[in-house]
Design brief:
Blueprint lengths: L15 H21 L7 H4 L1 E8 L5 H10 L6 E5 L9 E7 L4 H19 L8 E2 L5 H11 L8 H19 L18 H10 E2 L3 E9 L1 H29 L2 H25 L5 H31 L5 H11 L1 H21 L5 H32 L16 E3 L5 E3 L6
Parallel strand pairs: 4-5
Antiparallel strand pairs: 1-3, 1-6, 2-3, 7-8
Helix pairs in contact: 1-9, 3-4, 5-6, 8-9, 8-10, 9-10, 9-13, 10-11, 10-13, 11-13, 12-13
């Protein structure tokens, strides 16, 4: 194993008060910002909004699309590419805009805003012509009936309804929902040159089509938020049970408190730097929980091993030695991971900025809390219990410390002594 340091001998527990002071300062500053500036800033997937499903003739430039939405006052919108195994090149995106009204009003307003932004972004002129890619069977049938390009006169309504349905079926199935040329309709049975000419004269073709519009209400957003909180608490509870079983309950409590510390500091920094809490950020926070807990368990496991070997040394010295022995491993793993997410934060674009920021902050704070918060808490507990001589770290469920002749707790072991 690569070692960055040769037998470091740092007194981590002697500096525990500075670690607590730093954490307390960060917590106070971050949560003061939260309470004084209107609370945690949630993303629109928690606040509620309008989902607008848009399909393009060609793969859209997401950055160009985002800039176009921002130019129309929709800078907080979220853009998500849509694809599946059956149709991976659907050129389809979901645009999620913040809700501004109620029910049908919100649907109409959200669709109109996105449509205006798309028209401005892709240079669709306001020529007064209808968009054939946005036509419905009823509107197209009514148009054909009024123009009567087939010269049917009597009974034209039913015939043109069938023709309109055939045209739009060709558009949706054969052209993936977006026509690029009216001349393509010559392949549709029943479409004559006169029909093509009428459509060319009266319809335009935008390079996109709005396929569907749905409302995600604030109630659904609130349910998502509550589910995210429950998932995080369940994860912490499971880790507490595991560590209490694998070591002892005080170790589990210290590890969970350290993870709470990581999440609270990260939320405070999110408020200070103006980032929103979205579902992707919740995923990053859960990743942070697992990463921080893993580093803490590595240190705790080394403390347990050293407690068996160094029974006569003060517990604080055992913890210092354990942290120093794992220091190279901690810096290598955390440092490389930090560099990766830092590049993601700097170069991943706007859509990944908040997610990457949570990981950048989480790796730094999570690594620091393992030796600066979790370990000192265990030492403080042992000192308060008058067990500062040796750790009480049970090897597994059912293990209990035994006292040696000096009155210090000693780990029960099996096999040769």
């Amino acid at each position: 194993m690569i070692e960055l340091f040769k037998q470091p001998n740092l007194d981590w527990m002697g500096k525990a008060k500075y670690f607590f002071a730093l954490s307390g300062t960060l917590l106070i500053i971050g949560w003061a910002a939260i309470f004084l500036k209107g609370g945690i800033k949630y993303g629109i997937d928690f606040r509620g909004g309008t989902n607008v499903d848009v399909r393009f003739a060609q793969a859209p430039n997401v950055d160009q699309l985002r800039n176009g939405l921002r130019g129309q006052g929709l800078g907080n919108s979220e853009i998500q590419s849509i694809g599946d195994i059956a149709n991976p090149n659907s050129n389809e995106v979901m645009i999620f805009v913040e809700q501004t009204g109620q029910a049908d009003q919100a649907l109409d307003e959200g669709k109109a805003k996105v449509l205006n932004a798309l028209n401005a972004t892709y240079g669709v002129s306001a020529s007064g012509k209808q968009d054939l890619n946005a036509a419905t069977p009823t509107t197209l049938a009514n148009f054909l009936s009024s123009k009567d390009p087939l010269g049917l006169s009597l009974g034209a309504g039913e015939k043109y309804q069938q023709l309109a349905k055939a045209i739009l079926t060709f558009r949706d199935k054969d052209r993936n929902g977006v026509l690029t040329s009216v001349d393509d309709l010559r392949n549709v049975p029943g479409v004559t040159p006169a029909v093509v000419s009428a459509l060319n004269d009266n319809y335009s073709l935008a390079p996109f089509a709005i396929r569907n519009v749905e409302i995600v209400g604030p109630k659904v957003g609130g349910e998502l938020r509550n589910q995210a909180i429950r998932v995080t608490l369940y994860a912490l509870a499971g880790m507490l049970v595991y560590i209490a079983f694998r070591f002892e309950w005080v170790y589990g409590a210290a590890a969970v408190l350290a993870v709470f510390h990581d999440v609270l500091i990260t939320l405070g920094l999110f408020k200070i730097f103006g980032f929103e809490i979205s579902l992707t950020v919740i995923a990053a926070l859960l990743t942070l929980v697992g990463y921080s807990m893993n580093d803490t368990i590595v240190i705790f496991d080394r403390i347990r091993e050293n407690s068996r070997l160094l029974r006569k040394e003060p517990f604080a010295d055992i913890v210092n030695k354990s942290i120093n022995q794992t220091l190279s491993r901690t810096i290598l793993t955390s440092g490389l991971t930090f560099l990766t997410v830092l590049v993601l934060f700097l170069m991943g674009g706007q859509v990944l900025r908040a997610f990457a920021f949570a990981l950048v902050v989480g790796i730094v704070v999570g690594t620091y809390s393992s030796f600066g918060i979790a370990a000192p808490l265990v030492v403080a507990w042992n000192n308060w219990r008058g067990q500062g001589g040796v750790a009480s770290t049970g090897t597994a469920a059912g293990s209990r410390p035994r006292s040696n002749e000096g009155g210090q707790p000693r780990l029960a072991t099996s096999g040769r002594r």
